[in-house]
Specification:
The complex is a heterodimer. By secondary structure, chain A is mainly beta. Chain A contains 4 helices and 37 strands. Chain A has an 8-stranded antiparallel beta sheet, with no helix packed on it. Chain B folds into 2 domains: 333 residues, 6 Propeller (Neuraminidase); 103 residues, Sandwich (Immunoglobulin-like). Chain B is built from 4 helices and 32 strands. Chain B starts with a helix and ends in a 7-residue tail after the last strand. Classes of the chains: A mainly beta, B mainly beta. At the A-B interface, strand 20, strand 21 and strand 27 of A face strand 8 and strand 9 of B.
Chain lengths: 533, 502
């Protein structure tokens, strides 16, 4: 019954883009949902990574910094890459410091101050009207990777109306035939949410809720229930799903029913033996996702009754210090024999011992090992940094023979190896930087990389220089491909078109159709990769 | 309450006398560097006494002082990092280099500048496929007696082999040549040698495997899982592809776990008659009783420094976090033998293991992906003999009409000579594509006679019937030594592939 006011609020349209607006509109309203959120000591985490609210619900978050480092709480629009957003600040650190590490980003609609250790702040606001997952994050440098969560705006009670309750008294171990019993008390439920709010009875009672549920169209609907103790849901007088007997409210029961478009009679029966009191109901149907019909929901209820919990691992970022760091594993975009190298200064590559070619290069952080260092270690890990470049096709060799260099290059077949190539290994120099070695036909190839500039810093002009030494003999019509796709020649450099801008510089390079190539010759070849400034 | 304390006071001398595994074999858990999770995947010895360990996280560490009686004397140095799961590590006495078996490559590592860290990483062989599936683990051996390295390759998942040589054992010659050596492998957990240098691997319960097994890698043999047999097309040295395990015996619809009603899946013993390359497991490591996830194979080559079990094999288990003990013999040209429980209580799931010349077993592993009884996410430990000899069945040999047991200590003739001190049960597993399987075809034979040997340390049991292909589960609860103590472990599981003629 205490949610009544919030329904009235829902009618008030609010701009969600301006955090201040959201807060001031909420300030003069009385009832709020209070949520406590705290940062944990020395764990770089919030104590909750999920907050569930109703659309346009008035919410107060009491945010407390329990850690010994400064932290903030920044809410963004759904789909925001908060990690990238937080990291982008490093491009202009002087400005970011002036803003106390609050990113200048349009997707932010609510935020706290940067709290010093053991400070507290209350945020009062109207939740967004649009259902969705609104990420929240700490934007202090280096915190976003682990210190984040989702504010879930979930429509609740949508579709239920004219909800009434009837209270029965009795001592049961199973749901009784309520129809044969006389109600002790009856009334309406103004907020149209299934909820037990009795001040006078704690044990040995039953409640039957009746109301109308509006199926937006003809189709199959799933109903979910749970309770402590027995619960049963009926539509148009027919039992849909039941979870009878004395039990805790942990598991969710689920059944489907075919409904015609329009209003249907909903009946929800509940009995309480003793102890905890809990009722839960939700539904899902054509065109809409899990929607709660009760004021309370068990943890993880949005996933329904049957689905398994997806494993989510805490990140294990591989840190690059003064020396290059190597990480051989399955890397997204670099195949099954990938060799990741993180160079000091925030420049990283993934080299493929399948195609004997550079597969990826990127800026910023190197890689997160948590996918491979948890559980059984499968799956392809994407780079942890940003501005990922893939100059040629996925796991495609650079060398090929072709009459004309605009020919199609060989493409990767996961089940086969490229013929003519042999992987030899790598050698680390005095600075622990690898030189990769392989052979192609009669040629021996060694290639090494040097990184200059800084990929972690704005204006750091990160540059990757690739040196390739070819000895032995090459077959006729041998070409070396530097890039695939459209490149525009500008002042001696080839600038990637229609995608993340970057340039490739190599003496003698030429465009041939969609291939940026160079005739393969014994000797040295130097290729420079530069992200656009 | 008073009554209880009196009861305990009375009992404690008796309890103290009851032998426990820890009285004989002591486990020491080492602290490991805080900056990593030391998920030991493989261990070998360096000539200077240090250990070299590869981990699931792709690191290689050199370890000093692990042999010391003071566990805090241990120290670690990172030799290499960033490799793709090091589930095989080997020091090569010929070229003095380190060889690591990783997901898709045998790598030779060299420390040219002598700073204790590897700086040259040569591909010795990458002559097998890798599809990106998590299941495709590669387990490597140490160097065998002729200087080859063995690699066993897990299938792609439990059933199939989507890239070359998944489900095979390969040998890598010193020049890097790869020789396809055995087919039929499912999910190897470890590779090791017996005292004669014969090569074995441990396979895991799953399709075509009712239980984990210890299997003898005889070149040219088919080890039982046909999932990778299409690669005979790439292995002319192996001869023609074996016929598949029998569809006549297997009446199910060949889908997972869906045996057709009334159907009768095959038996290893029957299929051996048809499939000439099929080699039965040397020892079934009975599922749920010995372990659930067999891994390292460690031979006691310490000539007595590890106690009385010279030349026997110790099999680690990831799930049960334990070591079991295997005695093998050769009957009609085939390896077979018995497995006994040996030592429980390691801190995490064991994966890698190696004994040093002083009879110390170094082992370790992790629980991730499958879970382990040990309880810790990873561990590096040492298991040593305390110098006290446990009263155990030492060896169990098959005889034409029964078994011969030898003991580690003189036995009490009265209890050892009493039929009631023994009981036996025989069973097998279906040889079928469906995952795992029950103990089936149970036979409760009669122990018709028991005779204590003249040496006072052995018995001969006559059993009727002996069943070829069955596991013979022998309990010997009643046997006592001359001091009146019972056996430390009272069960052994003998895999009777062959019944000897004499």
């Amino acid at each position: 019954m205490r949610f009544l006011l919030l329904f009235l609020l829902a009618a008030t349209a609010l701009s969600l883009n301006a955090a201040d607006k959201a807060q001031s509109a909420a300030a003069d309203l009385g009832l709020v949902k209070v949520i406590m959120l705290k940062t944990m000591t020395a764990q770089m985490k919030y104590d909750e990574n999920e907050i569930i609210v109703r659309p346009a619900e008035k919410v107060k978050i009491v945010f407390e910094n329990g850690d010994d480092l400064p932290h903030n709480l920044v809410f963004c629009q759904p789909g925001t890459d908060t990690m990238t957003m937080a990291m982008k600040q490093m491009e202009k650190p002087e400005e970011a410091i002036k803003r106390n590490w609050l990113p200048d980003d349009k997707s932010i609609w609510l935020h706290s101050k940067m709290l010093n250790p053991h400070e507290k702040e209350e945020l009062i606001f109207i939740a967004p009207e649009k259902p969705g997952d609104y990420p929240y994050v700490c934007t202090f440098p280096g915190h976003a990777l682990t210190m984040n969560g989702q504010l879930k705006v979930v429509p609740m009670g949508q579709g239920l109306k004219d909800l009434k309750f009837a209270l029965y008294l009795g001592n049961w171990t199973k749901l009784p035939e309520f129809a044969k019993l006389k109600p002790h008390r009856e009334g309406v439920v103004p907020n149209n949410l299934i909820d037990i709010q009795l001040d006078d009875y704690k044990n040995e009672f039953g409640v039957v809720f009746t109301g109308k549920i509006d199926a937006p169209r003809k189709g199959k609907y799933q109903f979910y229930i749970s309770g402590d103790d027995g619960v049963r849901l009926l539509i148009d007088g027919k039992k849909v799903v039941e979870y009878d007997g004395i039990h805790p409210s942990g598991s969710i029961k689920q059944e489907a029913v075919q409904l015609e478009k329009g209003e249907h009679e909903l009946r929800y029966e509940y009995f309480q033996g003793g102890g905890q009191i809990a009722v839960f109901a939700a539904w899902k149907g054509p065109g809409f996702d899990m929607t709660a019909l009760s004021a309370w929901q068990p943890k993880g209820w949005e996933k329904g009754g049957k689905s398994k919990k997806k494993e989510d691992f805490a990140p294990i970022p591989i840190m690059v210090g003064a020396e290059p760091v190597i990480y051989r594993n399955f890397i997204q975009g670099a195949g099954n024999r990938a060799i990741g190298v993180g160079y000091p200064g925030g420049i990283n590559i993934a080299w493929s011992a399948e195609s004997m070619n550079l597969a990826l290069l990127w800026k910023g952080a190197f890689i997160d090992a948590s996918l491979h260092w948890n559980s059984r270690g499968g799956g392809y890990q994407s780079p942890l940094g940003y501005d990922v470049l893939k100059p040629t096709g996925e796991v495609t060799p650079a060398f090929s023979t072709a009459e004309k260099p605009d020919a199609a290059w060989p493409v990767w077949d996961k089940t086969k190896r490229y013929e003519g190539f042999a992987w030899k290994g790598y050698t680390l120099d005095a600075k622990r930087s690898p030189t990769f070695r392989y052979t192609w036909q009669g040629a021996e190839i060694e290639e090494s990389f040097s990184a200059t500039g800084n990929g972690n810093k704005p204006g750091g002009n990160p540059t990757l220089i690739r040196s390739i030494k070819i000895t032995g003999s090459l077959p006729a019509n041998a070409w070396y491909r530097l890039g695939a796709g459209a490149f525009e020649k500008k002042e001696g450099r080839f600038v990637a078109k229609d995608r993340l801008p970057y340039s490739i510089i190599a003496e003698g390079a030429q465009m041939a159709g969609q291939n940026l190539v160079i005739p393969a010759k014994v000797g040295m070849l130097t290729i420079t990769y530069q992200w656009a400034q | 309450m008073k009554r209880f304390s009196l009861f305990f006071a009375l009992c404690s001398p008796l309890l103290a006398a009851d032998p426990a595994e820890s009285d004989f074999y002591k486990i020491t858990t080492f602290e490991t560097p805080k900056e990593t999770a030391m998920e030991v995947g493989s261990i070998d010895l360096l000539p200077d006494g240090r250990l070299i360990m590869g981990t699931r996280r792709g690191e290689i560490w050199t370890v000093s002082g692990a042999g010391s009686s003071d566990p805090s004397a241990v120290s670690y140095k990172l030799y290499a990092s960033g490799l793709h799961e090091v589930l095989g590590i080997a020091y090569n006495p010929k070229d003095k280099n380190i060889y690591a078996t990783t997901r898709y490559e045998v790598t030779r590592l060299q420390d040219v500048d002598g700073d204790g860290r590897a700086d040259v990483f040569d591909n010795v062989s990458d002559a097998w496929g890798v599809s990106g599936d998590y299941h495709e683990y590669a387990i490597g051996s140490r160097f065998d007696k002729v200087g080859d390295l063995w690699v066993t390759l897990c299938l792609t998942g439990s059933f199939s082999s989507v890239t070359p040589f998944r489900g095979w054992a390969l040998r890598i010659k010193p020049d890097g040549t790869m020789v396809p050596t055995c087919s039929g492998i499912r999910s190897p957990g470890g590779l090791g040698f017996d005292a004669d240098g014969e090569v074995y691997y441990a396979d895991n319960q799953g399709p075509w495997h009712g239980s984990c097994t210890l299997q003898h890698l005889v070149p040219g043999s088919f080890q039982g899982h046909p999932g990778g047999n299409e690669w005979y097309a790439l292995a002319p040295n192996m001869g023609p592809r074996p016929i598949d395990p029998s569809p006549e015996n297997y009446q199910g619809d060949n889908k997972r776990r869906e045996a057709r009603e009334g159907g009768d899946p095959g038996r290893m013993v029957k299929e051996r008659e048809r499939i000439k390359q099929l080699l039965p497991p040397a020892v079934y490591l009975v599922h749920g009783k010995i372990g659930n996830s067999a891994s390292a194979i460690i031979c006691d080559t310490s000539a007595g420094k590890f106690g009385p079990f010279m030349n026997q094999l110790f099999i680690a288990d990831q799930s049960h976090s334990n070591l079991s003990r295997v005695f093998l013999e050769t009957v009609n040209g085939i390896k077979q033998g018995v497995v006994f429980p040996f030592r429980l209580g390691f801190a995490s799931g064991l994966i890698g293991g190696r004994m040093d010349g002083e009879g110390r077993i170094f082992t370790g592993g992790s629980d991730r992906g499958w879970g382990a009884r040990g309880g810790k996410p990873f561990c590096f430990e040492k298991c040593e003999w305390t110098g006290k000899t446990p009263f155990e069945v030492h060896e169990m040999r098959a005889k034409p009409d029964g078994f011969e047991l030898t003991f580690t200590q003189p036995i009490d003739a009265k209890t050892a000579g009493d039929l009631k001190s023994y009981s036996m049960r025989e069973f097998t597993y279906a040889y079928r594509e469906a995952y795992g399987g029950d103990e089936i075809d149970e036979i409760l034979p009669t122990i018709t006679a028991v005779e204590v040997g003249a040496d006072g340390q052995s018995v001969r049991l006559k059993i009727s019937p002996l069943t070829k292909g069955h596991i013979h589960e022998l309990h010997f609860e009643g046997v006592k030594n001359t001091a009146g103590h019972p056996l430390l472990h009272t069960v052994g599981y003998y895999t009777l592939n062959e019944i000897p003629a004499k």
